[in-house]
Amino acid sequence: MALLVQKYGGSSVADAEKIKNVARRIARAKDEGNQVVVVVSAMGDTTDELINLARQITERPTERELDLLLSTGELVSSTLLAMAVETLGYKAVSLTGIQAGIHTDSNFSRARILRVAPRRVVSELKKDRIVIVAGFQGVNQDMDITTLGRGGSDTTAVALAASLGAESCQIYTDVEGVYTADPRLAPQARKLTRIGYEEMLELATYGARIMHPRAVELGQFYNIPILVASSFGDSPGTTICKEASMEVRNRVSGIAHDTNIAQITVIATPHSPGTAAALFEPLARANISVDTIVQNASVEATTDLTFTVSRNDLVKAMSIVEPVAKSAGAKKCVADCTLGQVSIIGSGMQNTPGYAARMFRTLSEQGINIRLITTSEIRITCIISEERIKDAVQALHRAFELEFA
Ligand code: ADP
Ligand code: ASP
Ligand code: MG
Question: Which residues line ligand 1 (CB under 6 A)?
Fold first, then answer.
């Protein structure tokens, strides 16, 4: 008997009818002779609504309380889904993150899974029950509830698949798979049949929210194929796996965009050893992840240092950086929240010249000004005005001929 781990995202369980639809799909998987573990996200926009509610109480809610609050969203959907499955005549049980054995560190709002102890899941499966696990949540060593970061239910699902020894993990969502770009921005985007872990990881890290990056990382580490497909139909979807078909003709596999970035520039920092360390160490201690970092060549013994953080971290990051920059003798710190980033990604770009030039030419033909550029072996990212992101994605999609397989 095969063990299946399925995950259903928020839009797939947004109302009672959709929950009943998901229940029918789960029943079908059970009828096909599988043991079924389901991970579910909060209904529709519940998580956003809970965050808004907390912000109406206070601008800076306590992280512990916020995580506990947000975890309730997944309790609502998992219990309702268990009821819906039982109504169809199947045995089901819903489990919280703790009951499913999801142990995490104590970094509230971005906790990492340390280990999964799925004893209860296994014992419920032995009783022939369908197990429905609340995604996105875990528990730390103090028995406080933690959450894994936005989109984290994907990570719950892949972690459970790994710890239970499932052959694959199925992620059901509101689109038919992984596309060459976000279909909401680029209607001409094409669904990929397969994509490698590395490319998917770059796409997800640079904004393609179809998958939580850490879920892809776990899939790669444990070599678990991840199927991404629609919860509303039966089209085949995209498999994220080790050997993706190399697209020989078209070496860019996809375009990612991200508008959840904020840029911080420390202006006229004295150019002396230790300044960058003094700025970034306290950010690291506060667990703020810093992305693109650019330091200009020094002019008259001072330099400008620019980096990006996620917008939710901006207030905290500025409160850390401003005093450090001041004591280091920098002129001032400036924050900019009007930017976004667009990336082209493809393992076929490695060691092949011309991709960067074509990307920059395409953006310039659109009259788009590039503020910062960063690269990895398989990615080129440009930071541009947020307002031009859609134009950039569409123009790059055309320039790299991504609509053609
Ligand atoms: P869920 O609630 O099921 O987890 P998400 O909203 O987190 O769903 O992710 C699905 C969304 O990801 C899609 O609706 C789509 O707009 C967006 N998306 C971004 N990039 C891509 C891409 N390359 N392929 C498919 N969808 C993408
Ligand atoms: N409900 C959480 C969120 O909206 C987790 C998830 O959907 O994966 O981010
Ligand atoms: Mg998601």
Answer: 9-12, 41, 151, 173-175, 178-179, 181-184, 208-210, 254
CATH label, 3-174, candidates 3.40.1160.10, 3.40.30.10, 3.20.20.70, 3.40.50.1000: 3.40.1160.10
Short-list 352, 303, 334, 34, CA closest to 164: 34
For residue 349, the model assigns a pLDDT of 84
pLDDT value for 392: 98
Over residues 226-281, the pLDDT tens digits come to 999 999 999 999 999 996 555 444 589 999 999 999 999 999 888 778 888 888 99
Q: For residue 149, which atom of ligand 2 is closest to its CA?
A: 9
How far is residue 102's CA from residue 129's CA, in Å, rounded to a whole number?
19
State whether the beta carbon of 41 lies less than 6 angstroms from ligand 2. yes
Residue-level pLDDT at 244: 53
Q: 10: Cβ below 6 Å to ligand 2? A: yes
In the DSSP assignment, the letter for residue 312 is G
- Can you give the pTM of this predicted structure? 0.94
| pLDDT surpasses 80 at 184 | yes
Q: Is the CB of 341 under 6 A from ligand 2?
A: no
Q: What are phi and psi of 211, to 5 degrees?
A: -135, 140
* Cα–Cα–Cα angle for 138, 141, 143, rounded to 5 degrees: 65
